[in-house]
Design brief:
Elements lengths: L2 E10 L4 E9 L5 E7 L8 E7 L2 H5 L7 H15 L2 E6 L2 H4 L2 H12 L4 H7 L11 H8 L4 E5 L3 H9 L3 E6 L10 H11 L4
Parallel strand pairs: 4-5, 4-6, 6-7
Antiparallel strand pairs: 1-2, 2-3, 3-5
Length: 194
């Protein structure tokens, strides 16, 4: 992975004023960001959310998933703690991209679950690559993490990359009648821990 730090700036939000750091993947041309609050390079464990892009959930407020509420809860949690990190990884639709995600939604409208829809389109259930985070965390001098996630794959991926996940913070936010089947599929087929 060839992720290059590009620039940082202040980013005031409704929760806190973060520092936004921009990174560019020199192989794919995709941009990724980190939102930093407080001194995270002090050697102490850092509360971190590793969030994959979800335009429909994060920006369009879709209730088909729990992504938007998870993102909002993470920013609020970090602000209340006064210290923490959010990595926003550009891996829309578990790595299949926005247009394929819309195609997957169409298949889900016809009865497929989220895993079946991806597979019917010729993709694996989850194509995300968490090694993207390595260069970002190394640049930010973070080694010990308290990870906000329900996904055991994220925990093991970070541990395999050499980071110490000292705690997994259960991250259940945004459950509603429109995403109950989606969430049960994530638990039953992808091993998410709710």
């Amino acid at each position: 992975m060839a992720l290059k730090f590009v620039e940082s700036a202040k980013l005031p939000t409704q929760w806190a004023e973060f520092t936004i750091c921009g990174y560019e993947d020199e192989q794919t041309g995709k941009d990724h960001i980190a939102l930093v609050l407080g001194d995270i390079a002090d050697g102490e464990p850092v509360d971190i959310r590793m969030h994959s892009e979800c335009l429909t959930g994060d920006a369009m407020f879709s209730m088909r998933c729990d992504c938007g509420p998870q993102l909002e809860a993470a920013l609020k949690h970090i602000a209340e703690a006064g210290r923490g990190l959010l990595l926003y990884l550009r891996q829309e639709g578990r790595g299949i991209g926005l247009i394929n995600k819309i195609k997957a939604y169409h298949l889900q409208d016809g009865g497929a679950d989220t895993v079946e829809a991806n597979e019917q389109l010729g993709f694996d259930a989850d194509l995300r690559e968490y090694d993207i985070a390595r260069d970002m965390l190394e640049h930010l001098q973070v080694k010990q993490l308290r990870l906000m996630t329900n996904n055991p794959k994220k925990v093991s991926a970070l541990e395999e990359l050499g980071f110490d996940v000292v705690e997994r913070l259960p991250w259940k936010h945004g459950e509603n009648p429109h995403n109950s089947h989606y969430l049960s599929t994530k638990a039953g087929k992808l091993g998410h821990m709710f």
